[in-house]
Every structure is written in structure tokens, then in C-alpha cells.
Amino acid sequence: MSYEGPRTDPPHSRRPRRSPLTVALAALVTGALLGWGVYEAVGDGGPGTPVRTASSPAASTAARETSPSGPAATEDGGRPDPARTASAPAGAGPLRGRVVVIDPGHNPGNVRHTAEINRSVDIGTNRKECDTTGTSTNAGYTEARFTLDVAHRLRALLEEQGATVRLTHDGDEPAWGPCVDERARIGNTARADAAVSIHADGSAPGNRGFHVIMPGPVHSGGADTRAIVGPSRALGERIAGHFLHATGEAPSNYLGSGTGLVTRTDLGGLNLSTVPKVFIECGNMRDSKDAAQLTSGAWRQKAAQGISEGIVSFLRESRAAGGSGRTAGSHGR
Ligand code: ZN
Known about the structure:
By secondary structure, the chain is an alpha/beta fold. The protein has a domain at 96-320: Zn-dependent exopeptidases (Aminopeptidase). The chain is 36% helix and 14% strand. The protein contains nine helices and ten strands. The strands form three sheets. It has a six-stranded mixed beta sheet with strand order 4-1-5-10-6-9, with helices on both faces. It has a two-stranded antiparallel sheet with strand order 2-3. The longest helix is centred in the first third of the chain and has 24 residues, at 20-43. It is globular, with a radius of gyration of 19 Å. Bound molecules: zinc ion. The site of zinc ion has 7 residues, from loops. Residues 1-2, 105-106, 134, 143, 199 line the site of zinc ion.
């Protein structure tokens, strides 16, 4: 979860049951997203159009097993389709030269470092706690474990296409955090073409679905998101569309009016970013139906696939437009 402050939609607006109007709107927007996904499939190497061709199943399997990032999936299944995840030699692939920073929300070690993560840091608009422990399912599967697992799967998918991938932390390295301001700084220093922070929410049972959080315009103290609001929205819309298509999970029924898209100006990890960046809340760990998905390795592989395809779509678009994916204002910071 991303409870670094009040949400755009205050808690009292979250209705356990949606009105018919909201349901209708959600259906409409979901249809629009699906329609958009179909458009993407035709024009942008979307579903059904392998991003690159496998040299051979054997070769791709061997390369996966020797990948420095480790296997793309774990014990409980969810191995990616070889046709979509053929490995690329280092420095090759359609994402060669592109930099993606993946930020696994929270850190499994945070629970043992409460003093460190509770200190406050400057997020431009105000001060916030360095980091939080995150949420968990009722059975105790933690958000920090979830985000790290999805991050590893996502890294493997992006590296197989040639991208340079950096994680803001990797579980025990560092032992806690990093703080939200440092998480943003890592993306900025890497001059990332895209950055994504992975989370799962801790909302009330009955609240279901995913949502992507995009930065709103902030210009205060050390925060200036004005140059990244546009590209971050483009990134967020693509990730939402592909996530929906890959997982079949509906957009949030409690935030974003059925669009799966939410804008916030209170998150340090977004406020301090100078590169296109979004958060994704992949589901609600406190809802039993969502939790059943979040705890499935096969489902997490689909989630990583959807996020990866959204990033690829965004990077292709930014390259086709003649840009690097960065905004002019992000250079040199
Ligand atoms: Zn979180």
C-alpha cells in the first residue's frame, strides 16, 4: 500500500457497495480499456504479437536458467510463454539502451527497523515517514514479499528484451528501506526512461481490483513534477491497459471511478521523481478474492507480464516520438 498520506479520495468516500451509476461507469471504462488494449494489439506489438521471436525454445530456456536475474518464475508455476520471453544477448533486444527502474514497495526488513523507517524525510511539499512496513493478507503473506517477487519477474521480462533494469532494493540489500526520497532519487540518478513502484493495497474487504497512481502537478520545495505529469500519465495508461489484459483483473471498485487510474500529489516517491514514474497497486491484500490472486505465483507472472508490456508500449511510443522517454526538464538533475 502507499499510505504515505491521505489519498486523493478520502476513506469516507469509499463505498463498500457501488451505486448502479458507478457500476455502469466502471463497465464503460473497462470496455474502453479493453478496446484500447485491442488497438494496442494491432498497432503496437500487443497481445498476440510477440515482441520478439524466440530463436528456439531450448535456447530461451537455457538462457533463462543462466540469467543473472534468475528464473523468471518460481515453484508454483507461472512460467512465461517462451514465445514472448525469448532471451536476448546482453546489450541486444528492442529495449537495448533503455533504462527501467523498478521500485518494490516497502522492504521485508522494514519490520525489524521501525526506528529507521519512522524518521521523516523531506518530500518537497512536506515531510513524511521514510518508509512503511506495508500491508499483508489475513494469512500473513506480506506486501513486501509480494512486491519483491513481482519485481524479480518484471526484471527478468525486461532484461530478456535488452533493457537495463535497476531495482531500488533487493530484499536484504539494503536491510531496510530505502526511504521514499531515495527511491525517487535512484530513478533520477539512473536517468530512467520509465520507473514503476510496485505495491498491493490494504483496504477493506470487498474493495477489489488494481489501480495505477500517477503524479499530479507539484511545484514546492525540492519537488517539481510539472515536466513528468504528461509522460507519467502516458506510462500509467499503458500499464493499466496491459495489466487489465494480462491478468483479467478489473480496475479498482473503490478508487478511480472504474478507470484504474488515480492521481496523487502526496507521495514522495512521485513528487521527487524527475523521470516518468507511476505506482501500481496490484490488488487489495485484505480482500479474500484479491488475496487468492496475489498469493498465486502464476497470477504474479501475469501481473509482471502486464506491467512489462505497458512499459514496452510506453518506451516504443516515446522512441517513435523522437524522445528518449525522458522529458527535457529531467536532464542533468
Ligand atoms: Zn505499499
